């Protein structure tokens, strides 16, 4: 309410001046309640942006758990020594049956090479609940396609690791041995926008089987009615290692990667082979298959006298052949020579 004393004095002065109407209006205003101030709406609370997780420290080898609608998976992530500001390439490594992520890292020696070359290493680990033998389920149709099963789970984990480690998204690669090698072939082809190149050791081509019996037949080198014969999409650039004394996955399976390439749109292929000897005394044959532009689409290494084992691996790991040429070093050499070309925006 307005000050009544001041309003009364104003009304009296108006009466003295012979202005009774104005005096009455002044008194009415004094006795009228003042309008209540409008209530201010409380300011909307701003939701703070979530703080991104800290980038793993250089030289750290951490354990993690990734969850998605496609499943849950444990992993190990190695960040090489050196500057934490660099956006480094990342390699996804899929172990074989009965192996673990840590065992595979030890056997391949990839973490030591990662320090040398400046590469982040991601090791997904298959759980016994998904497969009692810790094999990747490459023979199941539900684990052979984009957007489903293990391919979707590994692709999601890879994107998670890229964000966590601040990796270079134009330099992402995937490799594996045995069941992990087949899974790498399937996943690399299912997500060509994510993976630039693929490394295969002692394995089969992607998606050639869909049953356990078909998988066993293919591993023994027997042709099955499930093997594709028509045109296929152009495969990712691939490097393959296989021992010609392998009794688990028949060495003839290495030829499947060339067959896959020949059935894809690539133009004329030019092949060149060379013989060599590793420091450990293993003879090998290395063959390059180039497309019409001169790009190596497939590099195939046959390790003579080697069995179902990672060539050049460390004795401390399982399924390794220390006498063979260094498959880990050669894979990194093949991978790091390739990166995804940036997509050019169309002129408006």
UniProtKB/TrEMBL annotation:
<keyword id="KW-0732">Signal</keyword>
<dbReference type="Pfam" id="PF10503">
    <property type="entry name" value="Esterase_PHB"/>
</dbReference>
<feature type="compositionally biased region" description="Basic residues">
    <location>
        <begin position="37"/>
        <end position="48"/>
    </location>
</feature>
<keyword id="KW-0378">Hydrolase</keyword>
<feature type="region of interest" description="Disordered">
    <location>
        <begin position="27"/>
        <end position="60"/>
    </location>
</feature>
<dbReference type="InterPro" id="IPR029058">
    <property type="entry name" value="AB_hydrolase_fold"/>
</dbReference>
<protein>
    <submittedName>
        <fullName>Poly(Hydroxyalkanoate) depolymerase family esterase</fullName>
    </submittedName>
</protein>
<dbReference type="InterPro" id="IPR010126">
    <property type="entry name" value="Esterase_phb"/>
</dbReference>
<dbReference type="InterPro" id="IPR050955">
    <property type="entry name" value="Plant_Biomass_Hydrol_Est"/>
</dbReference>
């Amino acid at each position: 309410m307005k000050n009544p004393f001041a309003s009364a004095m104003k009304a009296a002065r108006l009466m003295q001046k012979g202005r009774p109407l104005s005096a009455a209006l002044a008194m009415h205003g004094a006795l009228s309640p003042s309008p209540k101030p409008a209530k201010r709406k409380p300011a909307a609370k701003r939701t703070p942006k979530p703080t991104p997780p800290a980038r793993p420290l250089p030289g750290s080898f951490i354990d993690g758990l990734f969850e998605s609608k496609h499943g849950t998976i444990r992993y190990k992530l190695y960040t090489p020594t050196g500057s934490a500001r660099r956006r480094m390439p990342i390699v996804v490594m899929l172990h074989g049956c009965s192996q673990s992520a840590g065992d595979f890292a030890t056997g391949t020696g990839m973490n030591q090479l990662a320090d040398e070359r400046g590469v982040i290493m991601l090791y997904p680990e298959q759980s016994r609940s998904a497969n009692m033998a810790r094999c990747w389920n490459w023979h199941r149709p539900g684990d052979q396609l984009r957007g489903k099963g293990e391919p979707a789970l590994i692709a999601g984990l890879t994107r998670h690791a890229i964000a966590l480690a601040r990796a270079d998204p134009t330099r992402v690669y995937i490799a594996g041995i045995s069941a992990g090698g087949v899974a790498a072939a399937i996943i690399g082809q299912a997500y060509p926008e994510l993976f630039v190149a693929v490394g295969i050791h002692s394995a089969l081509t992607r998606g050639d089987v869909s049953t356990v019996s078909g998988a066993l037949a293919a591993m023994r080198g027997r042709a099955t009615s499930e093997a594709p014969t028509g045109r296929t999409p152009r495969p990712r650039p691939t490097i393959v290692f296989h021992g010609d004394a392998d009794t688990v996955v028949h060495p003839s399976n290495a030829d499947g990667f060339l067959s896959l390439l020949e059935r894809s749109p690539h133009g004329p292929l030019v092949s060149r082979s060379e013989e060599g000897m590793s420091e450990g005394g293993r003879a090998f044959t290395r063959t390059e298959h180039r497309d019409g532009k001169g790009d190596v689409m497939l590099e195939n290494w046959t390790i003579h006298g080697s069995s179902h084992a990672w060539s050049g691996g460390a004795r401390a790991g399982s399924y390794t052949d220390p006498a063979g040429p260094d498959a880990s070093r050669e894979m990194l050499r093949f991978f790091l020579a390739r990166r995804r070309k940036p997509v050019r925006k169309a002129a408006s």
